[in-house]
Design brief:
Blueprint: E1 42-47, H1 52-64, E2 69-73, H2 76-79, H3 103-109, E3 119-123, H4 128-141, E4 151-153, H5 158-164, H6 171-188, E5 192-193, E6 195-198, H7 200-204, H8 209-229, H9 234-237, E7 241-247, H10 251-271, E8 285-289, H11 301-315, E9 320-322, H12 335-351, H13 365-387, H14 391-396, H15 399-416, H16 443-459, H17 462-476, H18 483-491, H19 496-507
Parallel strand pairs: 1-2, 1-9, 2-3, 3-4, 4-5, 6-7, 7-8, 8-9
Helix pairs in contact: 1-3, 4-18, 8-10, 8-13, 10-11, 10-13, 11-12, 17-18, 17-19
Length: 514
């Protein structure tokens, strides 16, 4: 994105600082007046292995090395509602995250953890309500009150339709489950972030920075409107909405994107939805460095990429950050590499001096004009989505997906033609690949997981399981909040797949028609 440094704008050299302070509406310069001088961002690292036990070991390792928040990666069967022993799960159990079938695995996953103190983020969407129920039941069985739990459930189904594909039910029923989580958490888990509205995966799919911003905010508008239509108070549930953005390679553009996101969301919540509660105007966001920017070639270069991206997130005012490990282009990260990724955050926090100054690049004509430009471009895209009937209609028509595909194609053409240089990939290559020490999937552990699931199902009271699944099916045919029923299912040993199948029998499965 190019700007004209001589153009007269509010952020040009003649006007080095716009009249806005950090912590003041519309929060372009940060949500809080002191920002990191008072409290650092939450340092998260994302992890999930073939078994819950192995994943727990990684979490304990990370906590011992200074992580202040955990992010859980789940395998694909868990994400789309299949138990590990289901034939549909064959070949995918434990591949990209931890498999969770029942409270057995959740208990092992969070064994010996202070669940009232550690903030836990769960990257799960279609089955988010069930994962949240499993977490609540596990915490309460260990004496931790649900009202004390802190963390985030991703619960962002619209971006699954847009960019990832791990959806189950049609949009209408999926949105019901999303807003059921809003309502339940507002009443029972006040410190829990009920959704992480995600631009990360939109960017990973190939969008531009402006598209990431626009499509994420448009999804947010759809969630807010759906909740309002169900009678929820935006000033109340709006306080627990959160966002998830990508930190990509264009350093200054990314900083400006984060600033523009805060301003855009605050003004939309105030002007479009009439929100008066200041906390409900806040665009609080987690950032992960760009996975798609990592290269398998010369993986040491990924450390540099990740550092630059992490700095853009901090300079942009993130509330939470995950730094990718250098080997994540090829495999789950090793202990050594995940430690280096965490140390990258810690060095920025404690050695760089950046944290002493809220929004330190404010007043730079480049940053200010980029911020204004991204906001303007995003507003134009949001207006196009509104003209199509909103985010859900635009998704169902394939419009948003097509916009991203065109941008991804354009980017790849530039890489292939070397108009865009990727160091070590299309320039400055090395002839011979290096031997790498990578983490591998334990196939014996996969077999043990499947065996354990079958044993769990044999030893429980299956008449009781059927009874509670029947109650869930009845509830799904009505309009009441499904979380209490899902929690009862979990307490009575119903599995993730059984709960998902029960809802499938009522809601059906989504098949795109475009």
């Amino acid at each position: 994105m190019h700007i004209n440094p001589l153009k007269k704008t509010g952020g040009c050299p003649d006007h080095p600082m716009k009249k806005e302070d950090p912590g003041k509406y519309p929060f372009t310069r940060g949500l809080y007046s002191d920002m990191y001088r008072k409290k650092l961002w939450t340092m998260r690292q994302y992890a999930g292995f073939t078994t819950a036990e192995e994943s727990n070991k990684r979490f304990q390792y990370l906590l011992d090395h200074g992580v202040t928040g955990l992010s859980v990666a789940f395998d694909l069967p868990t994400q789309i509602g299949y138990d590990s022993d289901n034939p549909m799960a064959e070949g995918e159990v434990g591949k990209v995250g931890v498999p969770v079938t029942s409270r057995r695995e959740i208990g092992l996953l969070f064994d010996n953890m202070p669940l009232d103190k550690v903030s836990v983020s769960m990257t799960i969407n279609s089955t988010a309500a069930t994962l949240l129920a499993l977490y609540i039941v596990t915490a309460e069985e260990r004496g931790f009150s649900a009202s004390k739990l802190r963390g985030t459930i991703q619960n962002d189904i619209l971006k699954e339709f847009i960019a990832r594909g791990t959806y189950i039910y049609p949009p209408e029923h999926s949105m019901r489950l999303v807003t059921d989580v809003f309502e339940f958490c507002s009443n029972h888990i006040p410190n829990w972030n009920t959704i992480s509205i995600s631009g990360y995966h939109i960017r990973e799919a190939g969008s531009t920075a402006a598209q990431e911003l626009a499509f994420t905010i448009a999804d947010g508008i759809a969630y807010v409107q759906t909740a309002i239509d169900r009678g929820f108070d935006c000033n109340k549930f709006g306080k627990r909405l959160s966002f998830f953005f990508n930190a990509h390679n264009d350093f200054l553009t990314e900083i400006a994107k984060f600033r523009a996101a805060r301003k855009l969301w605050a003004t939309i919540m105030k002007e479009r939805f009439g929100v008066t509660n200041e906390k409900a105007l806040h665009c609080r966001f987690h950032v992960q460095t760009g996975g798609s920017t990592l290269a398998a070639q010369q993986i040491e270069n990924n450390v540099v990429r990740t550092t630059i991206q992490a700095m853009s997130a901090v300079l942009g005012g993130a509330q939470s950050l995950h730094t990718n490990s250098k080997d994540e282009a090829l495999a789950l990260p090793t202990d050594e590499n995940v430690r280096l990724a965490l140390r990258t955050q810690q060095i920025i926090a404690y050695e760089s001096g950046i944290t002493n100054h809220p929004d330190p690049l404010a007043g730079s004509y480049v940053i200010e004009e980029l911020t204004d430009k991204l906001e303007s471009e995003a507003r134009q895209l949001i207006q196009e989505i509104d003209n199509l009937g909103g985010a859900v209609k635009a998704i169902e028509a394939g419009w948003i997906q097509n916009q991203i595909a065109l941008s991804a194609y354009d980017y790849q053409q530039k890489v292939d033609s070397k108009k865009h240089i990727v160091v070590g990939v299309n320039r400055f290559q090395e002839d011979a690949p290096r031997e790498l020490d990578l983490q591998s999937i334990d196939t014996d552990a996969v077999k043990e997981q499947i065996k354990a699931v079958k044993k769990f199902k044999q030893e429980r009271d299956n008449n009781q399981v059927k009874n509670y699944l029947d109650k869930l099916e009845t509830g799904a045919r009505g309009n009441d909040n499904l979380l209490p029923l899902i929690i009862k299912c979990v307490k009575n040993d119903c599995t993730m797949g059984e709960i998902a199948d029960t809802l499938r029998s009522v809601f059906g499965e989504y098949n795109p028609t475009f």
